[in-house]
Give the backbone structure.
Amino acid sequence: MPLKIALAGNPNAGKTTLFNQLTGARQQVGNYPGITVDHKEGFTLHNGERITIVDLPGTYSMTAYSAEELVARDYLVNEKPDVIIDIVDSSNLERNLYLTCQFFELGVPLVIALNMIDVAKDRGIEIKIKKLEQLLDVPIIPIIARSGFGKEDLLETAVRTASKNKRWSSRDISYGKDLDMTLTELVSEISEANFMTDVYPSRYTAIKYLENDEQILEKGRQNNGEVAEKLENIVSKTTDHTQKTLDVYPEAIIADQRYGYIKSIIRQGIEIRTFDMDRLYASDKIDKVLTNRLIGPAVMFLILFSLYQFTFSWSEMPVALLESFFGWLGGVIENTLPDGLIKSMIISGIIDGVGGILGFVPLIMFMFFGIAILEDSGYLARVAFMMDRVFRFFGLHGSSVMPFIVSGGIAGGCAVPGVMATRTLRSPKERMATLLTVPFMNCGAKLPVLALLIGAFFAESKALYMFLFTLLAWVVALLAAKFLRVTILRGAPTPFVMELPPYRFPTIRGLLIHTWERTYQYIKKAGTVILGISILLWALMTFPGLDDQRIASFEQQRQETLSSFSPEAVADLQIGRENFSEETKALAGKIRNINNEETETALRNSIAGRVGGAMESLTGLAGFDWRTNIALIGGFAAKEVIVSTLGTAYSMGEVDAEESTSLGERLKNDSNWNRVVAVSALVFIMFYAPCFITVVCIARESSWKWAFFSMGFNTVFAFFAAVAVYQIGMFFQLG
């Protein structure tokens, strides 16, 4: 059985960077069982031995205040990895060792990776590693995760520690006379009754009872209600005593004592500062500009616009090449397979459907690469910090910023992790307002639609329009949040505190891994979910087809047309020489028109066509024709389906591969589309019901009542907004 190592540590301590250094591309991303929090697992080879590496969510403590803390602790106690590598930020030693203390209490086999020693040195901080190692009685290895320095020594030490096969045993830390007496009493009761001792050390369980850890309390009641009640009564008496004598709760005393324990170690000459502590660090100097009240927002908008300019400029050629490839592939299939359902499904359902999605892979990749730079450099945390001032005005919390960004605040995120990220919000009203409005962001699923319509109708200023539609998403989301907060979710806002990590130069390796992870998820979705939905929608747009009478009518039109031209022109057309003469060109055009009319009639007569046509009297107010309606219905499943369905719907009228053009060109040349319709469609697509997966996620995080509310509220709002855009736009256009 391979050795299993878990990586744990505070957010921004360099944990994921180290994980990428150790595993490279040998990793996979999933979700922890029963909870949607990122689960990264990879492997590395050390002296020919395969070692499994697990990247736990970043957490500040082992008390289950958030989903991340809950997941990290449950993984450790249930899976019991052979060794835990605790990544500690050298430049913030005191704060990071707080989590280390809790690992001591849990009794896990531990190795400390003292990361960012270069940053500490730049800040004039020297750490006496050997002395710290002796005082903590745990191996400590200095590393620089970003460059890979020290990773081999770290791995060797972790393997050596794991091979000792020590039993987990909690290390005693004194919490003061009153609490130590209570802990002794609690440990005695727990040990005597074997109360959850198969999962947690007795002293650790006792500490969690004093900290009023809700998960441990609930597990205790389920395990042995009688013992749990006795323990809770002991804690209740202690709480009353500390409240009367010190006016604090036991959990506050425990936190103070942990920091006291850390300070007592650091003050033994562990941390030496070689120059004035008031010196302004490089990150602080940069923040004086980038988080300035006036300059900061201007720089933020400039960076965002530059990201879109970079994305569209660099992706233009590879996107065009992929479009040409899928056009060529369609032509090969057109000339190879005989006419029939199989040929139609491959060309219209798969190549024009899924191919339309895959054609945007270069654009998606460059967008994710740019976002990875902003994330890894530490700038996105500054965006959250600046946006807090705005969010409070709209009744949201500063912590709401990150769910918005994750969901696509900078186009390209996903609403599912955005909804999950709302778990960090303590206020139920602010959490619900955030949860209901993050789907308004331009997620990665909407990005192909935005790129398609902006590229087709606003090609001269693609980056500018993408920037403007991103701002529109933020404005609408905040206004919707304000509406919810003053109506059905009224309540006072809560204060916001967040940590700003130091700025770092991203590594090429880390950027490439992050970009590939997200791009692969997009490609995987296109090859599975989108492929299945595209084929289903192709079937709905194909059957039941035309009856024999209508088919005979179109065939009669073709024969009458052929008989009206000379035998020479008919012969030229039959052998494929359409451009041989002017008469042959005219004949080919008439036959093509009849074929297109037949295909369009068949599409209108299909199941999807009938549904789309039935809605046209209503959706026509927003400028949507029946073909667009079909695509928008598919978008309820996944927003990427809109592009694939439009590709299918607007290709089923083409019978000549030579005349085939890109989907953007087809829409631009269609009489039902213009710039006003494009903007109306973009507004509706950006704001109508979240995709099915997001709806399920909202239901899991709140209830199905709120999930259905999200679908209804978003769709009604999006429709009225689209109608307003179309009616006003057409009025001025005609005027």
